[in-house]
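Exercise: predict the fold of this chain.
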Amino acid sequence: MARPVYIIDGSRTPFLKARNGPGPFTPVDLAVQCGRPLLARQPFPANAFDQVILGCVNVIADEMNPARVAALRLGMGEAMVAFTVQINCGSGMQSIDTAYRYIREGHADMILAGGAEALSYAPLVWPQQGVRWFAGMATAKGIGGKIAAALRIRPSYLKPIIGLERGLTDPITDLNMGQTAEVVAHLFGVTRRQADAYATESHKRLAKAQQEGWLKGEVETAFGRDGKVYDHDDGVRPDSSVEQLAKLKPVFERPWGKVTAGNSSQITDGACWTIVASEEAVQKYGLTPKAEIIDSQWSALDPSIMGLGPVLCSTELLKRNHLTLQDVQTWELNEAFAPQVLGCLAAWNDDRFCREVLGLDGAAGVIEHERLNVDGGAISLGHPVGTSGNRIVLHLVNAMKRLGTRRGIATECIGGGLGGAMLIETV
């Protein structure tokens, strides 16, 4: 029989906007910054976990298998098994899902599942012609050969490409993620004003959550090597307005596109951990669960409309658990792009889409805005891709506890044409 699986606790770093050059923390640095206070407040030793699973997309060369490096730096012991998972934007949720399945089937009792990403450390990539030129230089024989090889250089060979730009472009459709959001916006008639209004609200909600102290206990203060203190998500713009955002030009589809820098998720560094445990672990250590993981679902679709991934996987969750949209009181739908989020909401309320694609009898209905991303999302927070899936699960749990709601779904679109969703109930 499947065992119940609980979320016990969790914490994250502030999400720090990537600016000019590498930020103050690498992915492992970030994981350690929020991992130490989380482990320090637990009533069990750090080596009590069965394993550590960490989502990370842009692994840097100095931290191969960052899960293992983080586990060792966190003092979890040399015997701690730790591995890294990667499913693009879903990596942080994949770590929780893998932990959930291990524990549910009886293969583990307690797992530290997380996500860490420092997009400011995304590498520069040499053009292929440049790589071949370097190889020719390295293998040339004698002084004459090396001079001849050197003379074959062209200026374009030495012009690096930002690796993140390549990584955010789908190799099958040759569309970047912003362009796929434009496709979704076009399909469902999302307007520029609607997208800007949604983005404005995201900033205002995060600003209020910070002002009211609702993120305390979730966001841990991080300390740089130079002594600088980082204690809040620094991408929020409380004074954002529809009028201000309307002045920005479309980034991907000029002049009529809907996606701008103002209504897109921010390029950000951040990490998050979640403690996942069985009932046996709860009893052994006297833990107080915050929530139970009821079910999870991964779905796939055409990469050119990857932004609709949450609609597919969340609907499958609802069907399997005999629920409707209205039965879920709190939603976290990762804000990759405002037009993409609004496209998902429109798809659920579209009779033809729900019949032909989702296999429903008609439109699924409406998710009221007061139930969705109640404290803002990636547009105001940022989207460190390997971390976001973990953050939305943890924040969903904390928001549900604060609001007194029982059932929630955390869901996200995933580059490459995927979607992930997790059904959570408070304990």
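Check your answer against the key: The two ends are 20 Å apart (CA to CA).
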